[in-house]
Amino acid sequence: MAALSEAEAESAALEAHDRDAIAIDVATSRARCLLFLGRAAEMLPVLLPHREALERLEPSELAAPYYVYLAMSYAILGNRRGVAEIEAPCSSPPSDART
Fold this sequence. Notes:
Elements: H1 2-10, H2 16-36, H3 43-47, H4 51-56, H5 60-76, H6 80-91
Helix pairs in contact: 1-2, 2-5, 5-6
C-alpha cells in the first residue's frame, strides 16, 4: 500500500491525461489490495473519486478493472442500487464497436 501511495504522489507531476490514468490504475490496485485484506468498506472511498476522470478517458483497459472492483465493493456491502448503476455502462457495447 505504501508503494501505491508513493506512485500516486509522484504522478502529480505528470500531464492531466497521464495523471488521471495513473491515478485510476493506482486506485484499482489499492482496491484490489483492500479486497484481499478483507477491507471492502474502504474500497468505495478509494474508487469513487476517480469515476469522473475515468469517464473522460477513452482507454477501456482502465474501465474494466475499475468497474469490477467498484461492483464487488457494492455487492459485498449489500448495495444493490450501486451494482445496478454500474451494470448499465458495463453492459453497453463500446462506441467504436464494429458490426
